[in-house]
Predict the 3D structure of the following.
Amino acid sequence: MNTIPMEYYLLISAFMFSVGVTGVLIRRNAIVVFMCIELMLNSANLALVTFSSFLGDPAGQVFVFFVMTVAAAEAAVGLAIIIAIFRNKLTVNIDEINIFKW
Amino acid sequence: MIELIYLTILLPLLGFVINGFFGKKIGNEKVIGLIGSSTVGISFVISLLALIETINLPVEQRTNVVELFTWMSVGSLNISFSYLVDQLSLVMALIVTGVGFLIHVYSIGYMHGDKGFYRFFAYMNLFIFAMMNLVLGDNFVVLFLGWEGVGLCSYLLIGYYYDQKFEKGTVAQAAKKAFIVNRIGDFGFLLGMFLIFETFNSLNFLEVFSQAKHLTGAESTFGFIALFLFIGATGKSAQIPLFVWLPDAMAGPTPVSALIHAATMVTAGVYMVARASIIFASAPVILAVVAVIGLLTAVFAATIGLVQTDIKKVLAYSTVSQLGYMFLAAGVGAFSAAIFHVMTHAFFKALLFLGAGSVIHSMHHQQDIMHYGGLKKYMPVTFLTFIIAAFAISGFPGLSGFFSKDEILWFSYANGNFVYWLLGALTAVLTAFYMFRLVSLTFFGEERFSHDKYHPHESPKVMTIPLIILAVLSVIGGWIGIPEVFSGEHGNVFHNWLAPIFLDAELKLAYYGAHSHTEELILMAISVSAALFSMYGAFKIYTQRREIAEKFALKFKKAYMVLLNKYYVDEFYEATVIQPIQKSSEKFLWKIADNKLIDGIVNGTAVVITSFSSVIKKMQTGVAQVYALIMMTGIAAILFWIILSL
Amino acid sequence: MINEILNSITFIYPELAVSIFLLIIVLVDLVFHKDKKYIPYISLAGLVITGILVLNQIGITHFAFVPQLSAVKKYGMMTIDPFGSYFKLLVVVTSILIIFFTIASEEVIDLKERLGEFHALIYGMILGMLVMISASDLILIYLSLELLSLSSYVLAGFLKLRERSSEASLKYVIYGSVSSGLMLFGISIIYGLTGSTNLYVINSLIQGPQINLFTLSFSSILMFVGIGYKISAAPFHFWTPDVYEGAPISITAYLSVASKAAGFALLIRFIQTGFTSFISEDGYWTLIAVFDWQALLIAISILTMTLGNFSALWQDNLKRMLAYSSIAHAGYILLGIAVLSNQGLIAVLIYFFVYMLMNIGAFYVVMLISNKTGSENIDDYDGLGAKAPFLGVALAIFLISLTGLPPTAGFIAKLYLFIALIDANMIVVAIIALLNTVVSLYYYVRVLKHMYLTKSEREQENITPSIGSLVYLLVLLIPILFFGIYFTPIVEFARSCVSLLGI
């Protein structure tokens, strides 16, 4: 198990985080944006688990469970809001949702 | 009762709130008048009980502080709403509430039928509230609040008949004049306060004064503080050069003139100088300035009073002159004599004004004494009380004015010099003259008014009873301050009572000049007989031989015109201060500084701000991803900065 | 272990009360699904009880939930201290005011059968805020922040049939999730660096020499983003105007006061317990040398107030204008933290109390007027001073207080802030803040100009507020005027609540 060095996990985590952030910034579809946010959360989860495992401290892994719950709740709320907006505007493209500006 | 002293302040406030907010709804004059005067009356009773309690205390415990709450505490500045109950503030509180109560009662009759009845009583109560803060406050800030408060009430009440004409202008202009001139004095007072805080790091009376007692050598600092405070006093107490507002203040209703512009508010400056006696005593040069200004004002105003024909104007200049007396007393270090004169003056001057009000009331607001004459048979009570007051202010032996005026004259000689005394005595002679000119022209001689138009009659009881009470006080009020030459060693009760307050100042001044009683008696005899002669002369001339006065006026036409026009002081100020300010305001401040410079800056800034704002607004595109992008950019910028700074 | 938990429960009575009432509201909502009009009163009752429990806690300083298994025993997951109690009290009072607010708000009255959910979600927010205020553990911080955020996302979009409300909600949820994602990533790095999630432990560990400063700074910044979005500090404030404009106005008022207060409490606790090495005799904090926190906070606060004020200048929608104004106020308050002294902290506490009164008041008047006119546009305020004299005067006082002019409490709040700044020799910053206040005067007075100087083109009937609204406004107005003149009580109270549980 410990044959893979910690850096590898962290690099993957950082990569996932970057993908998530980039996705949030450039994708138009609100659902994809939410998926990218999930990616950000999961990259943090990966980092937490890695640290927890290498530090031998269970707190990090407990934290991950909480984060997963929160992520689920966030996805639920997000999707519900997307449905509400789709009913009103018949679109989920973020750049078209801009009544409020300036 | 000392602990309850705050009630004397809160009750008038309550009266103000009730009459001010609900007066219009109440509508009933009796109820409004009852509320207005009873709040002041109860305050007077409480003050009286506090006085009795204080008298029963041993001398060293007579200074009590009643703390209500801490108002603010910012850094080293700690200001609390607390009240100082000591010998001096109790005397002042009794004058304010006592005379104030009588004038409130009188006003019920005088203001009867006025459409702004409730407004009048609300302002009067507010005035008493502010004045009580002024005399009872235990630090300069509360004093200043009261100081500004009475200024505001004075403005409101002078402008009470705001829609009427007054002399060349309007009542509103007279009110404005009072307000602005007072502002100049207040500015000086504020500077003094700042300097006190700078020097003593406190604004509390007891702290500042106990520090000042031990502080020696800083005479220039004391000089500046005292000078600034005195500038404040000249504004409020109508001394040269800021006295011009007081004669115009007569535009207000007569009870207002009696209460605010004769008995109480205008003596605030004297009170303040007496309160800060230790500071003034530490700056002997400024103290001399106080004496000289007081003396000059006294003579100056008395001469103007000789020729005025408006009954209230005569009394107004008389007030200015008497205030000058008080400052003369303070200036020669006789602070308790000054306060004594404040008290007796409050009695007889309030009485004179109320009597004048009674006359004006019955003569349908005719104020020119040339149109009076022979009124004594129509209004006996007013006549009798008025003449008592005239005797008192002229220093007729045995009456209150005699004792206080004589004390001032004596100290101006004993602590000052012969010139002070001579000019002071001259003022007394002039005072006696113009007072009896007023009395003769009003109450004696032929009737110079048409009976078709005027129906003089005695005023109702609600007005005459306060007159009678004040007349009694004008007679006996001086008996608590009988000089030692008559009452023996330590026989002057009033002086003994106030002595602890002024002990430090008097120690610092250290007048040890030994003067014999004989000297005092001789001087007194000279001044009194001169005044009596002057009274008799005035009475004779103006009742029987008015042509003498007219001839005299014709002979010295120039001098007469100067006096009649009040030495052209108003015109002088108009030419030297007001016009230049107006001209430069119009030519430079308005057309160039304001229109071009300030407007240019303001408009320029507005243009810059607007364009900046429209650029910023564009950042808010409404697209959530752009927001996220800006956030990321922000984070990147912060990280970049951190890398640079690490 | 069990003992510790049972013992700790005595310190979280307010949070427990909120949880219990949350359940009660959900149950009542389920059982009495016909008649929902009692629900606001149940939630009021719950808040009053919570308030009493919080009041009982004032003065107590204690750790709760101290882990028994780990090596470092003495630090708990939650901290009960006077500072936290002050903010909890603020949150509870704000919540009570907001419940009354909703009772008068037509938007909420129209919800009818969804009223139960509405109140349950408000309780969710309250629970999140209360926990967040006393959380001293990164896990708890994250969870409470999410609880608060999730509830407010839904509430912002609660008028789901309105396009504007849904849009506000979507923007909020995207922005919020991204920032909390960033924050979580930062937390994971801090955890990796120190091996602990407790702020106190982290504090003692990062004082050691072996910490990589850049990584630590990076993770702290990510943490700061999560908090900064909650307090709408620039450049993390962009969601604020849009969400505030689109959300139901009662929720806007709530977000602008309560959730911001909780965010500030968290920020202060994060900086003080996480990064302060010691507090000097005269109340100045010395921070651990990671990076220059003070410079960052000053820069961000100036940026925040400038952006907020300048963007507010030409807003025609009152709600949006007040949103920008609340951003600007966040900037002022952040300046109080940037002083890094107890003096500044006192200023923050005073400011929040006053801010609560005046901001809710301003929103309340806007709500009453939009109840009648159906609009928040500034043109609909023309001639309002004559048509609704009391509302006009009330709004004028609130706006003057928001500007910070005497004799209102807003002046006192700003006064103490500037005193703290000048005391710390931050004169230039104080001058910038003062200039900002001048700019803010413009847009506040613009409303007054419309109310009193512009004649309305349309005929409108007079607006007379109900007795309840009148009382509500008086309850807010009287303290604003009273504390503007006699402010010693709040200053003393704030001074007594300034201490955080020490490091």
